[in-house]
Fold:
Amino acid sequence: MIAGGGIGGLTAAIAFARRGINTTVLERSSFADQTGAGIQLGPNATRILKELGVLDVIRPAAFRPDAMWLYDGPSGRQLQALPLGKQADKYYGAPYLTLHRADLHDGLHSVAEKLAPIKLKTGFDATSIKTDGDTVLVRSADGVEAKGSCLIGADGLWSTARDLLFPRDRLRFTGATAWRALLDRKDLPSPFDAPVVALSSRATQELQRGARRADRRRRPSSFALFGARSRTCHRGRSVTRAKSRGVS
Structure:
């Protein structure tokens, strides 16, 4: 059994199904959630999605940027350029794509629906997890019970499985915040209308430093700009990703 039918849960179910292993995905919603933002899929991710039979499903909704540009935030001067597009395909053996999270989730869902080893159970809000010998018992809020030999917790940030299995764990706010906005690429001057992924130098440094950037959490990086099929881009205080469908 897999608690959660998001990107992680559906990917796990598909991976199991490709190996002939039956799974039941317990999802509290009805797979109609369109929330989220734009995401990047590097070749390490798209290579796996290809093996799982998902890449060709999501490709029509995705955007393949020509390059990644790194800028100095304060001056706007371009520091470096990393070729992507066809060169990424040739060098890494898989594409570098950007797309909306919902488009990736829809693609995973459509593949999972067609695989016989996967059973999708919607409206299942897990409230109790118990073990009985070699069996795991999961009970929903409305009293429905699911059984399996094991349970994978993939129900996201506000995980019920985590709360039930590790009640002492607590989420910790990092103090970092971000904001996003959408701009039409036709309204942008060159070079910001280019079909590329662009990062400011400070945004890149913050990605690399991660948790060690406590002294800079409230200092905004200059911008992060990502090409998108809808000719839109994002601006923000930290690295954000453009959505291929242009819906904020």
Notes: The radius of gyration is 20 Å.
